[in-house]
Amino acid sequence: MKIALAQLNYTIGDFEGNREKIIDCIDRAKAQRVQLIVFAEQAICGAPAYDLLNKVSFLNLCEDTLEEIASHCFDIAALIGSPAQSSNKTISVAALLEDGRVKRYVGKKTIRSRDEAGYLSSSKGCEYIKIGDKKVAVVVGEDIRTEQEYGEYADLIVNLSNSPYSRGVVERRYDFYRQLAFMTGKPVVYVNQVGAQTDVVYDGSSGMINSRGEAMMLLKSFEEDFQVIDTEADQEPIAFPEQNKTRNVYHAIKVGLSDYFTKNGFKTACLGLSGGIDSAVVVSLAAEVLGAENVRVLLMPSQFSSDHSVEDARALAENLGVEYQIVPINETFAALTTTLGPVFGELPFNVAEENMQARIRGMMMMAISNKFGNILLATSNKSEIAVGYGTLYGDTVGGLSIIGDLYKSEVYDLARYINRDREIIPINTIIKAPSAELRLEQKDSDTLPPYDILDAILYRMIEEGQSREEIITAGFDEEQVYKVYNLVLTSEFKRYQSCPTLRLSTCTLRINRRLPLTNKYGY
Amino acid sequence: MKIALAQLNYTIGDFEGNREKIIDCIDRAKAQRVQLIVFAEQAICGAPAYDLLNKVSFLNLCEDTLEEIASHCFDIAALIGSPAQSSNKTISVAALLEDGRVKRYVGKKTIRSRDEAGYLSSSKGCEYIKIGDKKVAVVVGEDIRTEQEYGEYADLIVNLSNSPYSRGVVERRYDFYRQLAFMTGKPVVYVNQVGAQTDVVYDGSSGMINSRGEAMMLLKSFEEDFQVIDTEADQEPIAFPEQNKTRNVYHAIKVGLSDYFTKNGFKTACLGLSGGIDSAVVVSLAAEVLGAENVRVLLMPSQFSSDHSVEDARALAENLGVEYQIVPINETFAALTTTLGPVFGELPFNVAEENMQARIRGMMMMAISNKFGNILLATSNKSEIAVGYGTLYGDTVGGLSIIGDLYKSEVYDLARYINRDREIIPINTIIKAPSAELRLEQKDSDTLPPYDILDAILYRMIEEGQSREEIITAGFDEEQVYKVYNLVLTSEFKRYQSCPTLRLSTCTLRINRRLPLTNKYGY
Q: CATH number for the domain including A323?
């Protein structure tokens, strides 16, 4: 059987745009005498659509769009993901389009993702369709991981999916489909979305695996792709491409940043450069994705800024060809402290004044954003966000955070990757000790464990769900472990108000790990 | 059968505190020779616990606590809500405690709430237990709304619930249980939680309805309560108490505010007083709940503030006996504009400068909060939040919003209710035209439709889910309807970063109505 796999970048709610892309692929497939073309889960409308899934008018548009596309489906069958109404509930289906009409729906049973639970209802699960003389098991989304009996009856398993990027997912997904094909003894075709919707990045990486668990065809990661294969043709298997976690993160961020701007009609970005590693990585990626001419940068030194901070920031901006201006915060800080003087009285300098500096910077960046229409990119990393080492409404402000789901050590990895061909980020920024520079000679390590230890504790706590005791048993210092746990648990209120953050890890804070703010339990 | 209903205020994760409350009620019930005592859903741990529900150590503590309580259950049976592990998933159960041990679990099938979907899995649903010679249908949570066949086999229906307050819910819940009892011909006992967990307020209002749909016993709303009834005793039905929406909202806010502070160990609050209605209502409630001596207020006038703003704010603070200080924002604003001058060049005053003023105020309040440990109360209302008429990181900042789920007209209702005995909120604050005062002679009505029209459109759009066409057909101005829809759709990004907001309506923004930020569809 000749099958086409269409791995496309959809936009939520852009029925016309999504429809045109889909029809274009159907036409290409027909020209190649393809019998079945497969699209991703919820291709019609894009995902996650949240409460749009419960608007009748939205669902009607999905249905109308499916019918329009079906009118192109003669001499070809198409499987396209869409939400659908089913007795007052919304389910996720694979629609079979054939003979010019929408022939049937195969529903999804497993609703597991945080983005779907509460918005989509469970349906029947895997069903079989006939394409020519072949029996095809149609499986939507995560049903592929829960319903494994279908293999027996089918000549082919087809999975329409909607599987976002997360650290290591490409490798894991390849392994999963290989095992599935091998265990069931049936070839598997799976088609994923590609592209980003706000904070969710789909990596694509669709493919076809034969019944021996070998790849017969693999579509690109992080790009649209369209490929055709004849399942009966005698063909050599291909090698699974080697994966590099840092390179994948780099591509995921590029797609996330690019699509957030393109799909929302934004053009220009701004951010504050501190001379530190986080803002250096963000501005480098922004300049590459949006063009240096579309990125505006402020350097906002205070009396506590070291000379090298300004120098490093300036060198970076010049390396990138990004427009920068130096705007010291001292005068505003002085005015603010003078005005608040009668309220504060004789109380000593403390976290209030530290936060004031970060908030003045946040305010300046938002003023730039409002004045020039630049989207402000946040620069906090996951290590800081996890332990609450950042000022709410200060360094947490922004329209999008592109590194907020990366631990500090991953930010360093990314910096080295960005510098792979030439020194874009000044080497001094990479090697110097991190500091918030909110008081005299402050270092992050005054308050926090060194980042290699902090990150290791956080990774075990957050990504692996280990308890304090497990981490201590693994050899970490008891006092540090307790301290880190406490910091994470007491800073949940800051994450409640965080800005949209590209999801890059296996456990994104706020999304995959949400705690009640009122809570006496510290695990 | 003698039944006790224990309507208690639990704290999430406070296993010891919750256990002591529960055991105390069991002891009281035993002293009255009660056969069955019923507690609310998830009484053991409090709700919503989100990802704590997926920590094994948390679930183990739930189990341990149930067993400790069970050791008190001789000569009495207890039904207590708890999460429980079931083949690697977490379900919500009613645990039957009898003869000193945990005898069995009855699981919940219907997972519908946004706070549970994704955190709890579906279980079997309604089961029957024997108490003396009576057959009792045990129903957990929302199963009561979906599984209606149990009536036939039972002598009594018992519903452990977890039903938060929302506008009009007390009346609707009474109606629901009356109809249920009447239709099934069985008496119904239902026990709800009371008290708040961050933004969720449980109103209690538990009770027993006889098989004719008459109330035999009703527990208090918004307070803990414990009552005993003999289901066989010949007793006159009691009247359902009259409900007043504004009074209920008032009590819901008081519980929400009080519990947020008490359960988190906070004592003092701060906020900015503008002279407008929103901050006036917030400070009045804060002074009543926390004590005037625990509330600190800043008046932060600018060159655009009218004289009456400061006067009205001052009069209010004095009426309440709340400490206030006047801290003009002019100097900080001047310093900020001077510093940004080289960046802004000759560009005219616009929304950037308007937002700067709101952000300076937000920053000042956060400085106060950091310096003195006061929790900042946000003062935006739902009408503003819905249309994005507020400055992100400016007037949206805070630790808790107590009126953010009330339309402007409901805020006025509340102001009049607060003034029911004497003029606390200056009458001028209630009658003057609302203004953000961020530029010369600005009025909200320059940008927005008058609030009575705006609120009517928003109510139809948000609470009733009506489309533009439906609202226009109902007689609203087409241009205004389109404008309001657009404002709501394009301001979703602000709500993504909103602070915890007491849920008081039937459709709380961000929680019950969540839209993708990347979205081309405007319904």
A: 3.40.50.620
